[in-house]
Amino acid sequence: MTVVTLGAHTLDVLARPVPDVPDGRDTVIVDEIRVSAAGAAAGTAVALARLGNDVISVGAIGDDDLGDLLVTIMSRNGVDVSGLVRRTAVQTAASILPIRPDGGRPGLHAPGANLTLTPGAVGPGLLGAAGLVHLGGPDVTLGLNDPAFFEMLDAARGSGTVVTMDPLSTRPEPLGAAAAFLPYVDHFLPNEEQAATMTGEDDPARAAEALLARGPDTVIVTLGRDGSLVATGRDVRRLPAPPVDVVDTTGCGDAYCAGFITGLAHGRDVFEAARWGTAAAAVVAQGLGSDARLTGLDAVLRLLDAL
Asked: Carbohydrate kinase PfkB domain: which residues (predicted)?
């Protein structure tokens, strides 16, 4: 199955462990510094490719060194980057993430070219030709919130394409805008904070029920160490996360989406596919960055025995 990832493309620079930001010109010696493809589209694209999928990624990046590096990383991992458009007047989106010893991740972020993405970047017929389209961070690629793009999604779904969506922000305004995409989505994968912000419901099950009413067939609320909650119109199940030593939570949501999509591509139902997502996220949590330790599907399937 060919998967199109569409939306936010970001370059992450990560360092760990960083217990405190130093004062003045002091230096903190860390164990590791890495650069990785991130953003809810680019990070998911790399994870999908590592899990054995054919992936085309569509987004907007700057015509700069950051963009060159992001393209190199994605291409080296087997992602088709022909759908990326280069902008000359704005930088590639980037984040600096000092990872705390407990895996927490405060960040510094420049949204850059993600804000310039429009439906014009999507090639004719691309979405309809894909087996699955993943909308990664449409809440921060505001130019996609356009009737022309919704028509593309509607036509693609009519031809059999499955659409998944994962928001990126935790702020009320962009998440409110993301709600416009829900009637055109089959499977929606927010985290607990995003689901609560979008619905006003602190209980994940009630939040999932409210989101289901807006259009998706499935809502999966990811719960970090507590696993995830999978809700359809007929059933609600909680899936535990396997016990692992958490190094960094960066990219766990992207990995969950990639594992879930891979499960669907292998013919699994949404509950079993969600187990694949949970295991993929657990693999990534054990290393630094959004692609850490995700060497292939076998590494994910081995963890399923712990669920």
From this structure: 24-291
Domain count, the chain: 1
Q: Quick: pLDDT tens for 232-257.
A: 989 999 999 988 998 888 889 999 99
Strands 108-110 and 132-136: unpaired
Distance CA 86, CA 90 (A): 9
Q: Which pLDDT value is given to residue 50?
A: 97
Count CA atoms within 13 Å of residue 137 on its CB side: 29
For the chain, what is the radius of gyration of the CA atoms? 18
Give a yes or no: residue 198 inside a domain.
yes
The pair of structure tokens assigned to 181 is 């995409």
Q: Which domain holds residue 42?
A: 2-19+31-306
Residues 6+ apart with CB under 8 A from 166: 40, 44, 134, 135, 136, 137, 189, 190, 253, 254, 257
Q: Is residue 24 part of a domain?
A: no
CATH of the domain at 208: 3.40.1190.20
Contact (Cβ atoms closer than 8 angstroms) between residue 84 and residue 39: no
pTM of the model: 0.95
Residue-wise pLDDT for 160-170, tens only, equals: 999 999 999 99
- Taking the CA atoms of residue 216, residue 54, residue 306 and residue 203 in that order, the dihedral angle to the nearest 10 degrees is -20
